[in-house]
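Fold Annotation — chain and its backbone
Encoding — discrete vocabulary of local shapes
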Amino acid sequence: MPTPDDPDLVVGIDHGDDALVWRRPDGRALVSTVDFFAPLVDDPATWGRIAAANAVSDVYAMGADPLFAVNIVGWPADLDPELLGQVMAGGSATAAEGGWVVAGGHTIDAPEPFYGQAVTGELNLNDLMTNDAAAPGDALVLTKPLGTGLVATAIKRLEVADAAPAGRIGPLVAEAIAEMSRLNRDAALVARRAGARAATDVTGFGLAGHLHKMMVASGAAAVLHWADLPLLDGVTRLVPEFQPGGTGRNLGWVGDALHVEGSAREAGARRALLGDPQTSGGLLVSLPPARAAAMVVELVASGHRAAVIGGVVEAGALEAEGGAVAGSVRVLDG
């Protein structure tokens, strides 16, 4: 699409950031984003809660607070509309938790159901966080564990009983749902208090894709430590059977910019988790090391599985490792 050019468009499509930012005459700014998806869990209200948390995440990632949203719905004519009511009730419950108002929306006939929200927020431009402001020397913080794409795929392919609380992957499903339902509000507030200027949320492109995009936009490269990455408990056992189709596309897009240490088997499993498409994933924040460590301490104390996962380096620093260009990501064994 053509690149828009307007003096009040503070953040547009130039770097593929999470949401647009529009300057208001009073010096504050509006933030606008939209997201929706098909069911990924069996319970309608839970789907609605996750979809709303996923949609608002882009607002939080920019450093903004949500104001209001409208629902976006596709619904088959032969599917019980009472189920749609449960979906929208779940979305409204998450909105009430996060302090934004769901004020209407639009529904169309569709062969498969989908649900989401278009969310508008506001911010003080001094709090703006973008994906092009990571600086060499920064530490990288991830605020949620990885693996929700694998879990969602397993739910689709296995029997209902397997995903039930006492089932084959029941505890893993429960943990994934809890993380996907968790708002990124508190993580964003802590990042703002820490003075962060660079952030994105980890969603459909996976950690590898979103980090690659951040490093390209920032003209830098990243080094991660595999042992420090938070993962859903037991999710690695799903890698052989339940990789989503998006994993291969994400890894193909990142291509040779991603270098993963370990044996062939280890590196393959690690790449699958790095490319795993996340739903309502955590924030990826770049900020000075001391502030990053303090941010993690505060988030862990409030129940987040946050961690410092690596750092930002000059693009040329990875030249000896085969990654001399901006956007390179190297994942070390330890």
Notes: The domain at 139-332 is CATH 3.90.650.10 (Phosphoribosyl-aminoimidazole Synthetase; Chain A, domain 2). The first strand starts at residue 9 and ends at 11.
